[in-house]
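Reply to thread "Modeling small-molecule complexes from scratch"

Following up on the discussion above, here's a worked example others can learn from. I took a protein sequence and the SMILES for adenosine-5'-triphosphate and predicted the complex. Inputs first:
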Amino acid sequence: MSEILKIEGVEAGYGKFHVLFGVDLVVKAGEIVVLLGPNGAGKSTLLNSVVGMADVYSGRIVLMGQEITGRPPHEVTKMGVAYVMQSPNNFGTPNIFGELTVYENLVAASAGIPRGEAQRRIEEVFEIFPKLRELRERKGKFLSGGERQMLAIGLGLMKKPKLLMLDEPTAGLAPKLVSDFFLAIRDIRDKLGISVLLVEQNARKALEIGDRAYVLVTGRIKYSGDAKSLSEDKLAELFLGAETGGETPTYADAPRR
Ligand SMILES: Nc1ncnc2c1ncn2[C@@H]1O[C@H](COP(=O)(O)OP(=O)(O)OP(=O)(O)O)[C@@H](O)[C@H]1O
């Protein structure tokens, strides 16, 4: 299976603030790879490193055989990476325009794509997120957090990326919506053939749809392997490490460092 993304021995951070220490991670074609870890472990920083939004001090980042270490965000986006950041103001995907409707936002994201193809892609987005079809005439500024998140992912899909990086797409969503999101992410892989690198706090559900998983703790990979073999006990142990004493909290209760 070919490698879409290969991160090798990456040391990265922000200026003098060193966050990642020798991180290796691979996303192969057609995979959903889940990246877990406690708050502040460096998960977002790893995604930022891929799109040139964090400083990579050493190591290599390779996208479909081409080295992209340190390349600026717009170049990496052009090369096939869509990055839906945690904040509502997404980067790497076009921003959501509050005054435009859902449909108009999708059309705006299709600049440079021939009309027929753009319509096909909008239809694909509506198939992945049927809710967006219902809301097609609603202005961006009136969307709920979850709906905005769907649109942000939809905008990313308009560019037909090879790799979709999602940073906590289900954060703050109602439980029913969370399940729908995970199904949508699986559809993105299954129906559109896009590989996914998914950062999630919702570990159990993410591992259900994931093929492989990595656990990052204080900037170092502490687990890499099959998503299904990562048990809750193992996760709790990895998240809390040596600090665990007495009653073992679950990884969901892991304290902020
Ligand atoms: N732009 C930035 N400039 C400087 N430091 C930053 C920046 N972004 C994040 N950090 C710091 O880098 C460290 C790792 O943060 P990061 O957001 O990568 O962790 P995370 O694992 O994604 O956490 P969370 O689960 O809370 O989102 C933290 O100490 C954070 O404060």
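What I'd highlight from this example: The chain has nine helices and ten strands. Residues 14, 17, 19, 37, 39-45 surround adenosine-5'-triphosphate (CB under 6 Å). Questions welcome below.
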